[in-house]
Design goal:
The protein has 11 helices and 8 strands. It has 2 domains: about 170 residues, no CATH class; about 100 residues, no CATH class. The radius of gyration is 29 Å and the shape is elongated. It is an alpha/beta fold. The N and C termini lie far apart (about 85 Å). α3 packs across α6 and α6 packs across α10. β2 and β3 form a beta hairpin. This is Sporulation protein YtxC. It holds the Pfam family YtxC. It comes from Geobacillus subterraneus.
Length: about 290
């Protein structure tokens, strides 16, 4: 019998049900029992090595990945990094999952880890579990899951770094929004063509502006007074002019600068494709400019 003691009854109950769900009805090699409190007992009925390798360890690994992983990371976020606000914790946890699931690039590590989280868990259980064993799951996690916990800590740290960057970015965007709202629009309309990596400016009369023309538009006080760096080729002139309308033509709406311009100018901005720009200016050449 393998006897597993938990700190919380809900954890014991989850493992009990998961063990039974993973146990094949036609060839069960173990029987699981739950005392209704905090202990799960696993009675091995067949060959020990086969029962552990094919049924018990996979179920225990799934239990950690599906039911305990978030708890471990939330404990790190709260107890190690002192983020105690529940909303902040959930935001950081969501970011950690985006790294774990591969949606975000792990910029601290060039190559992938040699072993997956599942492999780390299987290795730990394989080295520890045996018949006639009684243990505390929390102690097992503390002393036997160190490589796995270090892996989670790595992604939690990445998530916290990303969270702080996003908070700084939101503060930056709000500051620029306030600047735009406080300024009287210098132009009724501005046309902006995204020609990666450049942004080309066109005035209300649809005349292209030179780089020097754009630099001349910048309010130097605006740039100097900002606590964060403000891009001098695009954002600084846009915020300085604070046009009533911005017509932005791009084929890459997910570009970082395009997203920032959208976030700052919100309802003042309209997105178009570059094909729309070509059609607009072709019509403009044929029929004369319109304001």
């Amino acid at each position: 019998m393998i006897e597993i003691h938990f700190d919380e009854a809900s954890e014991a109950e989850k493992l009990f049900w998961l063990l039974n769900e993973r146990k094949p009805a036609d060839a069960p090699l173990f029987h699981a029992a739950y005392d209704g409190k905090k202990t799960v007992a696993v009675y091995i009925q067949g060959e020990e090595a086969r029962a552990l390798e094919t049924q018990i360890i996979p179920a225990m690994t799934a239990f950690v990945r599906e039911h305990m992983e978030d708890r471990f990371m939330l404990a790190m976020i709260s107890d190690w990094f002192y983020f105690r606000d529940p909303e902040e914790q959930q935001q950081i946890l969501a970011l950690a999952h985006s790294f774990l699931d591969g949606e975000r690039r792990d910029y601290r590590k060039g190559a992938a880890f040699a072993a997956s989280r599942t492999a780390l868990l299987v290795e730990a259980f394989r080295a520890f579990l045996r018949d006639e064993l009684s243990f505390s799951f929390s102690s097992f996690a503390m002393f036997r899951l160190k490589p796995y916990m270090e892996r989670l800590q790595h992604y939690v740290e990445l998530a916290i770094d990303e969270y702080k960057l996003e908070q700084e970015y939101q503060t930056f965007v709000q500051t620029l929004r306030d600047c735009v709202a406080a300024r009287k629009p210098a132009w009724p309309r501005l046309y902006l063509l995204h020609d990666p990596p450049r942004f080309l400016f066109y005035d209300s009369e649809r005349r292209e502006l030179s780089a020097e023309d754009v630099r001349q538009m910048i309010d130097r006080h605006l740039v100097v007074s900002q606590p964060m760096y403000i891009d001098s080729s695009v954002l600084a002139p846009l915020v300085s002019l604070a046009p009533s309308k911005i017509e932005l033509y791009t084929d890459d709406p997910d570009d970082g600068m395009v997203q920032t311009i959208q976030n700052v100018f919100e309802e003042r901005l309209r997105l178009h494709s570059r094909a729309d720009f070509s059609r607009l200016f072709a019509a403009n050449a044929g029929h004369g400019r319109e304001c």
